[in-house]
Amino acid sequence: MPRKPKVAIIGAGIGGLTAAVALNRRDIDVEVYEQSPHIAEIGAGVSLSPNAVKAFRALGLDAPIAAIGFESDNQLVRAWNSGDVISKVFRKGVYEKEFGAPYLSAHRADLVDVLRRQLPNHVFHLGARCVGVETSDTGAQARFADGAVIEADLIVGADGIRSVVRQSLFGKDMPRFTGSVCWRGLVPLDAFPAGLISTDLTLYMGPHSHVIHFMVRGGKLVNFVAHVETNAWTEESWTQECDRSEVMKTFAGWHEPLLQLLGSSERYYKWALYDREPLDRWNKGRATLLGDSAHAMLPHIGQGACMAIEDGYMLADLIAQSPDDLTEALRQYEQHRMPRTRRAVLEARARGKEMHLTSKWAQIKRNIRLAWQHQFGGDKTGLKLTDFYEYDVAAASRLAATQIKAL
To answer: N or C: which end of the chain has fewer CB atoms below 10 A?
Structure first.
């Protein structure tokens, strides 16, 4: 019987924790190293489209994910100034039938807490800031700021867009500033008169900008994210607070109910949007990448966290299926995940341009196309994302494992 490998994951975000849970479920020795002194997430929403929900179902997490998630009845696209509904896509019940799972929205902290609670405390090493990784064909080492060095059969870089692991493996390259800045906030739904703020996932599209809002915490809180194209501020931090006046000045003249929402948060945070050019490889020796470390993308198609969740599931499953040939497991992981995530990066960029059209004629043509496509085009997602939502990572992972065994 082959020896079970030891896996070290650098980073305790959504992707890293998903991988850790999946490995632990398969009785693989896994440890998680997180630079923060505690495991937590920012106060913001996250989209869990059907492909991500199916991954969690495969891990036996149906009930806790459903408990923290909210399923909206519809998806609305509205005009920025009048609020007129450009398109309306039915979701509740339809997505389960069409794609095998619902589309949920959740608070990031709630999702991280669900994942963290699946793992024993001894798995976590907090306050462990990785400063470098060295790898070979038979193992890898990670070095930390306090001088500690750990060895593992495999090291996984799940340490975000400015990944130290990525830099150690492939050299320094900078994230790409995309020319947009976001503001976000959370507001209790009961702060508004009944019916003023829709509980449907709602997207407003305006010149050089868009706003999206959806429900979290079981429908108790409205999460909004407001995007605008600007080069005036390029800080990347998700925890930078700002003043309400910035948001209200930027979106003056937009639909009045939306302005009431944007003006009602107790705290406002802003950050500049970055992504990365897709890599040609994720693996080097006995180290690899997942999530934003491998394929940081814009949030415009709601797939950033979903792709990280898929990565974590497939990587863990292939390790468990082929513990005595990690090199081939990593090769299959890279081969199966890279094309899908590359397309997500590029699709998110293209969607941002489509949402921010400035020409009135171009906006009219886009809106007519969206309305027709949603009403008559047979696209149940409304935004040409059917093949993303149909994907079942458990089935894809079984296919990849079969290819390993056939060698």
So the answer is: N
What whole-number percentage of the chain has pLDDT above 90? 75
Q: Which of 175, 164, 182 is nearest to 228 (CA)?
A: 182
Residue 1 maps to a domain: no
d(C-alpha 404, C-alpha 407), whole Å = 6
Neighbouring CB atoms inside 10 A of 107's CB total 25
Identify the three-state secondary structure at position 29.
strand
pLDDT per residue as tens digits for the range 172-215: 888 888 889 999 999 999 999 999 999 999 999 999 999 999 99
Give the domain range for residue 392. 6-175+276-405
Please tell me what DSSP assigns to residue 100. Answer: S
182 and 262 co-located in one domain:
yes
What the block records as the tokens of 360 is: 């009135």
How many distinct helices (H) and strands (E) make up the chain? 14, 18
Q: What's the CA gap between 204 and 226, in Å, rounded?
A: 9
What is the C-alpha radius of gyration for the chain, rounded to an integer number of angstroms?
21
